[in-house]
Amino acid sequence: MRSWYMGGTALAAVLLLNGLGQIATASSLDEQLRAPANPADRGQSRDIADQLLRLGQQQAEAEAYEDAIRSWSRAADLYYEIGDRPSMGVAFENIGFAHAQLGQYSEAETAIRRRLAVARDGSDFDAQIYAWNNLGSLQLQRGELVSAQNAFEEGLAIAQSVENEAGMGLSLSNIGLVAMTQNQIEEAIEFYQAAGNSRARANDLLGQANTNSNLGDAYLALGRQGRALGA
Q1: CB 195 within 8 A of CB 169
Q2: Helix, strand, coil proportions of the chain in percent (round to 5)?
Q3: Percentage of the chain modeled with pLDDT above 90
Q4: What is the pLDDT of residues 193-215, one digit of tens each?
Q5: Quick one: angle between helices 205-221 and 165-181, nearest 10?
Q6: Which residues contact 39 (CB under 8 A, 6 or more apart)?
Q7: Element holding 64 (H helix, E strand)
Q8: CA nearest 25: which of 2, 59, 72?
Q9: Residue 45: how many CA atoms within 13 Å on its side-chain side?
Q10: Quick check: pTM over 0.70?
Q11: Does the N terminus or the C terminus of the chain have fewer Cβ atoms within 10 A?
Q12: 103's torsion region: left (phi>0), alpha (psi -120 to 50) or beta?
């Protein structure tokens, strides 16, 4: 089972940025963006960027991913102008998600690499972990097993360096997926077991359930029905 991991912040959590107030319409945002730029008015630029971020969320929930990409891209530009790198990273992460939903994996990879660059600049290790895993998931989807393995291992190394159990569990589980894809089932089981332990220590119940499901599939592939049921 493959999922899109959003830096520990689910896509829906974007709604929490700067409150849950009235979301501007696309037309009103267009009018504000066409207004003469005022470099001194950072507050207005931030408000517009936040509104665009929330608008993109609404559009993504309606599966209007191309519209969402446009909204998030404009938000990213504004965040860049005001120097808000963390929010710009969130916008890139969301853009990658939308491109992946459209099957546009090359564009999704570009967005995630931008997200990774922002995370590195800000020494945001958690974001780096999830960006590497998102990148690896895209590469795995395209059958680029060596690149995917390397990306997941990068995420694992960072997670281990900062003792992020959830990140370790995610990375190990994804490395297990690569092993399964190569029919290295015994190795996959070892990775899944290690991942499950890390996710249990992190109290990552959803992630642990995902890993256990993959572990059950691996046991089934070896004809070990009893262990599969246990997983």
Answers
A1: yes
A2: 75, 0, 25
A3: 71
A4: 999 999 999 999 999 999 998 99
A5: 20
A6: none
A7: none
A8: 59
A9: 19
A10: yes
A11: N
A12: left
State which amino acid sits at residue 227: R
DSSP state of 37: P
What one-character DSSP code corresponds to residue 19? -
In 3D, which of 133, 127, 106, 105 has the Cα closest to residue 115?
127
- Residue 125 tokens, joined: 């290790």
Q: Can you tell me which residue has the tokens 């029905």? A: 225
C-alpha to C-alpha distance for 72 and 50, rounded to whole angstroms: 10
Q: With H, G, I as helix, E, B as strand and everything else as coil, classify residue 24.
A: coil
Looking up tokens 């207005």 gives 44
Q: Which of 74, 77, 68 is nearest to 108 (CA)?
A: 68
